Amino acid sequence: MNRPLSPHLSIHKKVLTAVFSIFHRFTGIGLSVGAFLLSLWIIMLALGEEYYGIFRTISTFFIFKVILFIWTLAIFYHLYNGIRYLIWSYGKMMDLNLVYKTGYVVLFLSFISTLLVWLAV
Predict the structure, then answer these.
(1) pTM, whole model, 2 decimals?
(2) How is the chain split into domains, by residue range?
(3) Which of 18, 90, 100, 102 is most buried, taking the most CB atoms under 10 A from its CB?
(4) 39 Rama class: left (phi>0) / alpha (psi -120 to 50) / beta
(5) What whole-number distance in Å separates Cα of residue 33 and Cα of residue 55?
(6) Secondary element (H or E) of residue 7
(7) Are residues 94 and 88 in contact, defined by beta-carbon separation less than 8 angstroms?
(8) Pseudo-torsion of CA 25, 31, 33, 36, nearest 10°?
(9) Which of 77, 85, 88 is nearest to 31 (CA)?
């Protein structure tokens, strides 16, 4: 009676394509939350100097910069992985070996693009 009722995630092998798909969905949700926060920032700018001062105080915290860095990484990951999915929609680059290689290219480009943006600022 200690056995699982149905196949559980812990018994399945982690497939890279599934992990990339899940992260694509997570980054989409994260980008939605980030767009909401970006809207709040614009509203704070429009409300005047007092509210902008509140934003400036919040933006000095280290956790704010970490979240912004992760959001930047999510933007690039979602962009590059979305382009990969778009190419797959045309039936191109569907060979399993190429799917794995392009997955690593997506990760590499995401990290490099994020670093370039943050080093340019």
Answers:
(1) 0.84
(2) 16-120
(3) 102
(4) alpha
(5) 17
(6) none
(7) yes
(8) -150
(9) 77
Altogether, the residues listed in the chain come to a count of 121
Cβ distance 30 to 67 under 8 Å? no
Both tokens of residue 64?
């704010």
pLDDT per residue over 21-63, tens digit each? 999 999 999 999 999 999 998 998 899 999 889 988 998 999 9
Distance CA 102, CA 11 (A): 27
How far apart are the C-alpha atoms of 66 and 69, rounded to whole Å? 5
- At 22 the three-state DSSP class reads helix
Residue type, 10: S
pLDDT of residue 6: 65
- Residue-wise pLDDT tens digits, 62-109: 999 999 999 999 999 999 999 999 999 999 999 999 999 999 999 999
- 16-120 topology per CATH: 3 helical TM bundles of succinate and fumarate reductases (1.20.1300)
* ∠ CA 44-48-52, rounded to 5°: 50
Residues with Cβ within 8 Å of residue 85, at least 6 apart in sequence: 24
